[in-house]
């Protein structure tokens, strides 16, 4: 999809704040600082539209990006961020779980994993959660610009070994810096949403 108009429609923490126009939604999920906001910017061809930061925990609400009145990207706050209180963590967990398990418009999740290391326990747990709820998932190994191309096959085999892929789910390598994988991510999103 060639995106012309982007609006951040809504920052939501609970269902009554979710958008009501019924467009399909793709959620971006992953550890804090893994590159969800950077992926958004690459996919919509806007540098710096979704705010990125080298400090983890930048995104704290569900941010709905309205793309051409056709589709929403939902930027989900990252997990694995140590510097928050237990109460805050529980609140975030509930917000994310409620969205992922009840949202009818949700057509798929892009689960970002840092391509420089094996998936963490948090990553694997998140994937099992998505599988349990039968949410179509694209596992995206990102920051691949930091790994020499000669090691990319090894990265894919580590992912294949550690992530027990559900039928129909896929693994893709990506870099927000070089934009490697951008077309494949779009194709996957289009196949899940029909946009
Ligand atoms: P939270 O909002 O805290 O959950 O983080 P996020 O997942 O949205 O991460 P964000 O996009 O803000 O990126 C975090 C840092 O990683 C930033 O400094 C980005 O520039 C950097 N980054 C993201 N993607 C890539 C990538 O593909 N390659 C490289 N080299 N750096 C990246
Ligand atoms: Mg972010």
From TrEMBL:
Q: Extract the HAMAP family matched here.
A: GTPase_EngB
Which InterPro entries does this one have? G_ENGB_dom (IPR030393), GTP-bd (IPR006073), GTP-bd_ribosome_bio_YsxC (IPR019987), P-loop_NTPase (IPR027417)
Q: GO biological process: any one?
A: division septum assembly
Every copy of the EngB-type G domain together lies at 22-195
UniProt-listed Pfam families: MMR_HSR1
GO molecular-function terms, A-Z? GTP binding; metal ion binding
Cofactor(s) essential for the protein: Mg(2+)
State the family it belongs to.
Belongs to the TRAFAC class TrmE-Era-EngA-EngB-Septin-like GTPase superfamily. EngB GTPase family.
GO cellular component: a single term? cytosol
Q: Which domain of life is it from?
A: Bacteria
**CDD domains for this protein:** YihA_EngB (cd01876)
- Source organism per entry reads Apilactobacillus kunkeei
State what this protein does: Necessary for normal cell division and for the maintenance of normal septation.
| Record-given protein name | Probable GTP-binding protein EngB
Keyword set for this entry? Cell cycle, Cell division, GTP-binding, Magnesium, Metal-binding, Nucleotide-binding, Septation
């Amino acid at each position: 999809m060639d995106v012309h108009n982007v609006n951040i429609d809504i920052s939501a923490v609970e269902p009554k704040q979710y958008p009501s126009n019924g467009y399909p939604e793709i959620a971006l999920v992953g550890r804090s600082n893994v590159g969800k906001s950077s992926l958004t910017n690459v996919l919509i061809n806007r540098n710096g539209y979704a705010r990125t930061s080298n400090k983890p925990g930048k995104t704290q609400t569900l941010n709905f990006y309205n793309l051409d009145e056709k589709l929403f990207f939902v930027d989900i706050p990252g997990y694995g961020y140590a510097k928050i209180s237990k109460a805050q963590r529980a609140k975030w967990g509930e917000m994310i779980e409620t969205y992922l398990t009840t949202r009818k418009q949700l057509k798929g999740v892009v689960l970002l994993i840092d391509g420089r290391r094996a998936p963490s326990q948090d990553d694997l747990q998140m994937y099992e959660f998505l599988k349990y709820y039968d949410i179509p998932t694209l596992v995206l190994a990102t920051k691949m610009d930091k790994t020499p191309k000669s090691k990319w096959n090894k990265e894919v085999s580590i992912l294949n070994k550690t992530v027990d892929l559900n039928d129909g789910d896929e693994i893709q390598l990506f870099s927000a810096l070089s934009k490697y994988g951008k077309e494949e991510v779009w194709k996957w999103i289009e196949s899940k949403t029909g946009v």
